[in-house]
Amino acid sequence: MSVPDTGAPSGGEAVVGDQPVGPWGDYLAAAQQLDAVRRAASTAAGEQAATLQAAQQELSAVRARLAPQRARLLQDFGVPETALMPQPAEQAMAAQAVAAGPAAILGALRQARATADAADAGMLGAAPAAALPLRPWARNLLVYGPFAAAVLIVQIVLYLIAPSGSLPTYALLCGLSLPVLAYGLGWLTIGFVYGGGSEKVDRTPLVGAITCLTPVLLTCMGVGLLAFIR
How do residues 128-152 score in pLDDT, each as one tens digit? Predict the structure, then answer.
């Protein structure tokens, strides 16, 4: 004798429409809800992994873009290295911008790359910063040097045209007068070119004396070497 089909589960649960009611229905609803949560979590995890991977790629691109910009700012534009270090306020703003998760990190990195692109465009049309001023000794050497070179040339010419018997007299006169003359002219030139301001001009007298006496030493060494060879 057959049992009529009532549409209920084997445990005797009633069915309303397509959904069973009672404990079996509660179990099926909970299972469906858990499956939906699992699917949502799986989708969110996949999206988060993709976002993290994209953020890593953006970070590599931003680093590659910032490295040459940093080198150019230091070398070509003379920006001090301390000016390129992030300040505490900037670090706090960056931490706040990426606190919302991977999506916020990716957005911040993309904004940073856009800023780097704009900086590249601006640096291409910008002229390097004005060259740093020379130190006083190097600046003054550019003045004392030509006068010392003139002394050396005069001494060589006098050595070539002076009679052999009068060479010691010429050497004594040139060795005493020409370096002093060159030093005095250099001193005056430095004051004329770099003076006029409120600060006193540093003429670096020791550098000037050594520079102006160098031709005398070179001439003496040359004359001694020629005398030794002969």
Answer: 444 556 788 888 889 999 999 998 8
Sign of the alpha-carbon dihedral angle for 150, 156, 160, 165: positive
Among 133, 148, 144, 145, smallest CA distance to 199 is for 133
- Mapped onto helix, strand or coil, the DSSP state of residue 19 is strand
How far apart CA 140 and CA 178 sit, in angstroms, is 18
Angle between helices 23-75 and 102-124 (to 10 degrees): 20
Q: Are 205 and 212 in contact (CB under 8 A)?
A: no
The fraction of the chain above a pLDDT of 90, given in percent, is 6
Structure tokens at 159: 């050595």
Q: At 71, is the pLDDT very low, low, confident or very high (cuts 50, 70, 90)? A: confident
Please name the amino acid found at residue 192: F
Q: Which of 100, 102, 111 is nearest to 55 (CA)?
A: 102
The two three-digit tokens of residue 1, written as one number: 């004798």
Residue 155 in tokens: 């001494």
